Amino acid sequence: MAIIIQKFGGTSVADADKIKQAARRVIKATKKGYQVVVVASARGKQTDQLIADAHELNPNPPERELDQLLSTGEQQTVSLFAMALEAMGYKAISFTGAQIRMVTDSVHTKARIISIDSKRIHKELDEGKIVLVAGYQGIDKNGNVTTLGRGGSDTSAMALATALKAEECEIYTDVDGIYTTDPRLFGDAAKMERISYDEMLELSSLGANVMHTRAVEFGKKYDVKIHVRNSLKEDKGTIVTHEVPRMEDVVVSGATLQKELAKVDLINVDNKPGNAAKVFSHLAKAKVIINDIVQTEVSTEKANLSFTVDAAELKAAKETVEKIKDEVNCQNIFIRDDIAEVSVVGVGMRTHYGVADKLFSALAEAKVNIDSITTSEIRISCIVDKGQSKKALRAVCRAFELDKPAEQRKQTS
Amino acid sequence: MAIIIQKFGGTSVADADKIKQAARRVIKATKKGYQVVVVASARGKQTDQLIADAHELNPNPPERELDQLLSTGEQQTVSLFAMALEAMGYKAISFTGAQIRMVTDSVHTKARIISIDSKRIHKELDEGKIVLVAGYQGIDKNGNVTTLGRGGSDTSAMALATALKAEECEIYTDVDGIYTTDPRLFGDAAKMERISYDEMLELSSLGANVMHTRAVEFGKKYDVKIHVRNSLKEDKGTIVTHEVPRMEDVVVSGATLQKELAKVDLINVDNKPGNAAKVFSHLAKAKVIINDIVQTEVSTEKANLSFTVDAAELKAAKETVEKIKDEVNCQNIFIRDDIAEVSVVGVGMRTHYGVADKLFSALAEAKVNIDSITTSEIRISCIVDKGQSKKALRAVCRAFELDKPAEQRKQTS
């Protein structure tokens, strides 16, 4: 019998009615003949409440104890979920991460999964039970409870899909699927039927927070078919999968806007080997996460070094570069915190050359000035004025017809 | 180094302030040179809330899942307690029942402890840590979470005290110790310095709910010295221990009153072998718990059979005896739900004959009518009118001087 994983996030199990709704979704899958494994997060704001309880006792709670505390939220959800299924006449059994031996390393609050014992799960499924697994948690080799960090329940679901060789991993959420861009910024955004792991990763890292990057990476690595869908609707959502031939025709799949951004320019740095490394190793020591880096030669002796960071990281970044300014013989530092980044993402870019042209023309027609440009193999990003950023995103979405389903769009050369 | 167990009930860890207060109590014991193992219950009303959550989804939740759910309450307390201790500068580590392999049978919601792996606890204690163990819970041999039923955290504490060969098990609660009688009924009740396990068991089963019967039985079986004390005060509480020679002098240790009681009289039942068995096997099938039984011969052919039950069980008891009335050739059934039971308890009774006399005289002087009398080796109980019951208890307490410390009382012959 084919196995399907269904993962429900905190909003989809927030109260008794939501849990019942999710339970009916599970039952529907069993009626289609699937063996179902449910992965669930903590109910609604439970995790926030537990964190508040912890901070009331200790502003810096030891991470082992924090994991021990927070893991109870998911444990509560899955046992309640099992009770709901039993009340509806279905056999169900819930497990903690420890009970299915979801073994992780010992890095508390952001542990990585090493192995899962799938035997117990197969046994229960084969006895006709629906199996529920508490998301977000595991145990290390000494039996300490660990948690997997942000988006951890998605990662649990992916790991189970891999270990159980599931046909599909359904991620239930409060949106209909993955959109070509944020519908709050561009009302006509179209829902995507399919998207590749790579595109999803670029979109995730650019702030489209439907699934956490790590879970998508997991899906890509182990080739797990992901189906992102709305827990309240019957409609198909978006399938995340490896590229299929016809996806190549879609040059640009989606567009994103990152607004909370800042840019640091180091002007006229000595252009000699090791200087860039010096700058970024100091930033790494200060735990500043860098988004994009651009270095341009000014002369044979001098170069400009620019990088972007999340707005929240600007203070630390600024302090760090000011400290090493003289060391790299930097003439001047410019800081901009009034910028935003508009990006287009699509696997088709690899083989189509007209994307950059169409992007820059769209921005020019909308009279948006481009500060700088960076690219990856499947992404082009432009830094623009924050004040012009929404206009810029809309212009880009119209140019690439992101309001239409992929197959109705005109080809980009 | 000597080990001490400190058990904190739900009211003693209800909020952050209470947890801090309990933590200071633990630190005090470490400063005296003890290795401390803390057993804690769920915070305040947490368990009630979880049960309500469960019933919202399933009026008859499967017991395995209920255990999986409820055990999170204690897990939360011990991790928060550990955080509080760390914030105060002490090394601490919390464990679930599963993590210290508190193995039980598989009788969910009222499991019995089989074994504890004390190695991990000793290791952590020897590293200078305070160890916290979630009360009320264990795991069965298949790794399912079990709970120990009412008063379960007391039982966890006793089991740990036994496994770790602790010097003492301190039970922290919201009263000062064990009293000669309920201070709400007899304001002058005296706190006892010491009480034997057997007396404590009689008092517990008669409704003095400071500790659950099962935990006291455990203490008796494995000879664990118990110290019941107030979590908010420094004063010594009451020591529960095996009889010591000087305890023999104390003829009556305490008195109790059970008010929610009912009595069923089967009049003129055929006095032949097997009739009593028939009545009580039907009552057992109906799951009616019987308190006391009295059978008296009326003639060679006929007998009266009486028993008392908790008021809540009366309906089921009545229906049962009415069904088998003809089978045992019972002439009449009398029901009384306006009764109460006054009891005196004391190990000294075994060797002193004047107790019954003093008890009946006290009730007679107070003009309290006695309906019936039952006795055990260390207890005498009288059924009286509910309306006279408080007066009866007070008369008994005065007669046995239960307002005074044991050593100041006059001897009963």
Structure description:
Two copies of one chain form a homodimer. Chain A is an alpha/beta fold and 413 residues long. Chain A folds into two domains: 3-174, Acetylglutamate kinase-like (Carbamate kinase, 3-Layer(aba) Sandwich); 254-408, 2-Layer Sandwich (VC0802-like). Helices cover 33% and strands 27% of the residues of chain A. The first copy, chain A, is built from eleven helices and 18 strands. In chain A, the strands form four sheets. Chain A has an eight-stranded mixed β-sheet, sandwiched between helices. A six-stranded antiparallel β-sheet of chain A has the order 14-15-13-16-18-17. The first copy, chain A, has a two-stranded antiparallel ribbon with strand order 4-5. In chain A, helix 1 (16-31) crosses helix 3 (63-87), helix 6 runs antiparallel to helix 7 and helix 10 (355-365) crosses helix 11. The two termini of chain A are 45 Å apart. Chain A binds chain B through residues 16, 19-20, 50, 53-54, 56-59, 61-62, 64-66, 68-69, 71-72, 75-76, 78-80, 82-84, 86-87, 92-94, 96, 98-99, 143-145, and chain B through 16, 19-20, 50, 53-54, 56-59, 61-62, 64-66, 68-69, 71-72, 75-76, 78-80, 82-84, 86-87, 92-94, 96, 98-99, 143-145.
